[in-house]
TrEMBL record:
Keywords: Hydrolase. The lineage of its organism: Bacteria, Pseudomonadati, Bacteroidota, Cytophagia, Cytophagales. This is Alpha/beta hydrolase. Belongs to the AB hydrolase superfamily. Pfam families: Abhydrolase_1.
Amino acid sequence: MTTKTKNNVKITGKPEHPTIMFAHGYGCDQSMWRFVVPSFTDGFQVITFDHVGSGNSDQSAYDFEKYDSLDGYAGDVIEILEENGLDQVIFIGHSVSAMIGALVAIKRPELIKKLVMIGPSPCYINKEDYYGGFEEKDIEEMISTLEDNYLGWSSYITPVIIGRPDKPEFSEELNNSFCSIRPDIAKHFAKVTFTSDNRNDLSKIKVPTLIIQTEPDVIAPEKVGEYVYHQISGSVFTKIQTAGHCPHLTAPELTIEEIKKFLNYGG
C-alpha cells in the first residue's frame, strides 16, 4: 500500500520549490490547515496528509502495536518523504504532531530542514519539578471517561481545545472530526498522546525550531511551551495573541505571519 492511499497524501505547488509539510494534531485531519496552506503554495511545494486512523486515511492500516508509541507515526512521516524522494523539508506540526516531527528530525535529520511546533507538549503529566498541565490522575480519569463514553467526552473536550467560545463553529467542526474516527482507534491514539513522555528527546533536536504558543492554552500551557524552548538549543519562542489550542483554525493570519517570519519568506 502506498502512503498516498494509506495517509491520504496531497501534494500541491511546484516540485522545484522547497517543500513544506503540515501535520495535524489528535482527533483532526489535514483539512484543519485549509486557512494556512494557501499562503504557502506560491513559494513552496506543500504536503498535507492524515495520520493513519484519522480523516480519509485507510483505517484498515491502523496497527495497534505499531502505533503504541509516537515512533510509529514518525515512521509514517519518514515513509511519506522517502516515497516522494524528499529531504530538507520544513515540517509544521500541531500539538502531538509537533513531537512526531521532532522524532523525525532526530531519527533522520537530513529529512528535516526546519521544524515549527504549534502548541507542543513533550509530556502532559506533571512530574516532580516538571509542569505538564495535568496531574496523572487527571489523565487517568480522562482516558477512563473516553473509554466509557467517547462521544460524550468528545462533545465536552472540543470546546476546551478550541478555547474560543466566540467561535462555536470550530468547536463543532472539531467535535465532528473526533466523532469520525473509529472509537477504538481514537481511544488508543488518545492514550498514546496523553501518556507519552518525550522530554529527553528535546535536547537531541539540532534543526532550527520555532515554538508557537497561544495564551491561554489549557492543553499545552505557556509554561510547557517555555520548557520546550529552553530544552531545544537555538530555538525561537513566539506567543501569538489568541486563546485556545488551534490557532491555525481560529487565528490563521497570526499563525501564518509567525511561520513566514521564521522562514524569512514573504516579509
